[in-house]
Design a protein that fits this description.
It is a single chain. The mean pLDDT is 95. The chain is built from twelve helices and nine strands. The chain is of the alpha+beta class. The chain has two domains: 69 residues, no CATH class; 187 residues, no CATH class. The strands form three sheets. It has a five-stranded antiparallel sheet with strand order 4-3-2-1-5, covered by helices on one side. A two-stranded parallel ribbon has the order 6-9.
């Protein structure tokens, strides 16, 4: 049994169930009673040929197969890993049911991000974050970097636990956490700060996992480790620029887990403080499908296989 999406210009995608002998549209009444909603192959006939025989208009101009297979079925989702939903298949910021299941987790994450944002604004009212000033360092800057990076670690660990990839007492490192980059496409996000429009967008996870040294690949995280464990010799590595990168990583992690409105709220100061200028482009195979056909229309968590 496999599920597929069929795209139509100007309309939400259709959801289909297709096997070797039958194809039926999902989420409607009785597809067998509709027109173009049910197909059955004749003995010895492939289902593709059966559909083409009865609805050649479904196919592309060169006979391209119009259905895109999805990795998950209706109502299935990966805990705390955002994806587009079938009604909005090109929404790179996505959605996740976990935002509704775990409102306390989301609320605390928003609160912590708000606290980090306020501290960053206070520092930037003292020193103007431009040019060489971004290399400035000091106790408040170092402390903010440490707080931001430990918050990112909290998100990393939370996603791994939610998907059964870690257990209580496990000692995880970036060798484990780097697996999140592929699952969540963290490197595709770019964050701008509208209050500081001269700053270029930050891509805090760009290149993560590319060299086999996952700590060093994240310069902000490497600086955090150095300045946390050896302040006397690595104080200057905890610069203001690294703080911007680390806080960008925090907001990316919230949105990559819960989506934009689910993570930052439908209307909030956080939505105006951060702007996403680049987001993942998800293939249709990764889209979540609403639980059509389920009597309760309930969602079911499926652990992501890292």
């Amino acid at each position: 049994m496999s599920y597929y999406l069929r795209l139509l210009d100007g309309f939400s995608p259709q959801v289909w169930w297709i096997d070797d002998n039958e194809a039926r549209r999902v989420g409607i009444g009785d597809p067998k009673q509709g027109i173009g909603t049910y197909f059955k192959a004749e003995p010895g006939e492939a289902i593709r040929d059966a559909i083409y025989r009865q609805a050649s208009g479904f196919f592309g101009p060169n006979g391209e197969w119009p259905f895109h297979q999805t990795n998950l079925g209706p109502g299935q989702f990966y805990p705390r890993i955002s994806r587009p939903i079938d009604q909005h298949p090109h929404d790179g910021l996505g959605w996740n049911r976990s935002a509704e299941i775990e409102p306390n987790v989301v609320a605390v994450a928003r609160g912590q991000l708000s606290a980090l944002t306020r501290q960053l604004e206070r520092i930037c009212q003292t020193v103007h974050p431009q040019g060489k000033v971004l290399e400035a360092f000091g106790h408040d800057v170092r402390n903010l970097l440490i707080l931001a990076c430990t918050e990112v670690e909290t998100h990393w660990r939370g996603v791994m636990f939610a998907n059964g990839a870690a257990q209580t007492g496990d000692r995880l490192s970036t060798l484990d956490y780097v697996k999140l980059n592929g699952a969540m496409r963290l490197g595709d996000y770019a964050v701008a700060f509208p209050n500081y429009p001269w700053l270029p967008p930050f891509k805090p996870f760009e290149g993560w996992g590319s060299t086999g040294k996952p700590t060093q690949e994240l310069e902000w995280y490497d600086a955090y480790n150095a300045a946390k464990h050896d302040r006397e010799n690595a104080f200057e590595q905890a610069s203001l620029c690294r703080v911007f990168e680390a806080i960008s990583a925090c907001v990316v992690m919230i949105v990559a887990q819960f989506g934009l409105p689910g993570g930052l709220g439908p209307s909030s100061e956080l939505r105006s403080f951060f702007q996403f200028v680049a987001v993942p482009k998800w293939p249709l195979s990764e889209v979540y499908i609403f639980p059509y056909g389920s009597p309760t229309r309930e969602w079911t968590a499926e652990n992501f296989s890292f």
